[in-house]
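Cytochrome C: structure, please.
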Amino acid sequence: MSKRKFSSQKYMVVTALLSIFTPVSAADKKPEQLVDQLCSTCHSLNNLKHSSGYSQKDWKTLISYMVNTNSDKKLTQNITGYLAEHYPVNTKRESTVIKGDLKLNFEYWQVPTLGQRARDPVQGKNGIIWWVGQWGNILGRLNPNTGDIKEYTLPSGTYAHSVSLDKNQTPWFLGNKNGTVGYLDLKAETFKVFKMPDEKARDPHTGVFDNKGRFWFTLQHSNMIGKLEPETGDIQLVTLPTKGARPYGIKLDSKGTPWVSCNGSNCLIKVDKNSMKLTEIKLPGAQTHTRRLAITPDDMIFYVNSGVGKLGRYNPKNGKITQWDNPSGADSHPYAIEYADNAIWFNESAKRPETLVRFDLNSETMQSWPIPSKEGVYSGLIRHMRMGNNGLIIHQTATNQLAEITWSQ
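Here you go.
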C-alpha cells in the first residue's frame, strides 16, 4: 500500500499552520485558540460539539487521518489533550442495536492522501474498486487482492462527488464544483471531460448507466436530472417540478427506468427513459427527505427517510407507501442504502458508533451492528454503499477508509 501523503489545498493550509506554530508561538496561544484556528480551517467546530468524544490517544489517531501532525509533537500533544478534556467519550449519540444471528466481517483499506474525504467506492466485475476523494480532487483505484493503490489528480476544480463504472469498467466521475462529467481513459491514463450545456447546471452529483450505455445523473442544488450520451457527448437536462427538491440518489428499475430521491422535499421522482418527463410521487410528512434509494428485483422502491429516521417502501404497482422506524429512532439520519441478499441494508449516520442495519424482506425484521473503525476510532460517515462482487463496499469519510462487508450465519 502506498505511503499516506497530503495534497488537498485545504489541508495543506492546516499543515502549513502546524509547521509555523513553533513551541514559542504555540505557548502564546491558549489550547482553545489553537483548536479554533486549526480545526475550523476545514470544518465547522460543531463537529466537535456534536461528536461522541474520544480519549487523547484516539483524538491523535483521528487527527492523523486528516493532517500530518509530525511537525510539532508538543503542539499535537497540547491540542489532543485539550480535546480529550473538553470532548471526552460520551453516549449522547449512542445507537440502539438489534441483535440477531447474522455475523459480519469488515476488511479495511486506508487510502493514501490525507484529508481527501474518500467516498462512493464502486467495484467492477474485474474486482477493482474505484473511489473519489472529493476534497483532494482525486480519483482512486484499489486492487483489493494485492492492496495496490493508485491515485489520479482530477482536472482542476472538479472536486468529484461520486464515481460510476460503464460496461467497459471505465470510471466516470461527476464534477460537483465545476459542472462537469468525465471519465478516465484507462489505456492513455488521460481524462475526457464533458461540460454541462447550461450554466445553471453547476453540481453533478450521483450517476448510473443504463443497459443502452446512457449515463443518468442528478444535480442536487441545481435541482436537475441529466442524461449523457457517451458516444456523442450530448447532454439533456430537466428541472424538477418542486423548487428546492434537491435530487440526490438515483437507481434504475428492471425496465431501465430511472428513479430519483429528493433530499430537499418529501418526494420521489420517476423519469421517463425516452422523453425524460418527470413524475413526482409525494411521500408522507413535511419533514420527510430521502438521501438515497434501492430497488429490489421485483421493482419495489425502498428509500431512507433521513428526515424522520425511517425506512420506506413505495410500490409503483399500486401506489402504496409503507414505512418502518429505524432501530435508533427519529434522529438516526439513515443515509446510504443498498439491496443485497434478499435484504435492504442501510446505515444510521448520526449515531456513534455508526450502525449498519439489515432489513430482511421476508420477515420484515431488522438486525443492526455497530460499524467498527480501524484502530478504534468510531467516526463516520458512510454516504454511499454499493454491492460489490463479494459484499457491500463502503467508505468512511472522516477516517478516509474503504471497506468490504461480508456476512455469514
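Notes: Helices lie at 9-20, 23-27, 31-39, 46-49, 56-64, 73-86.
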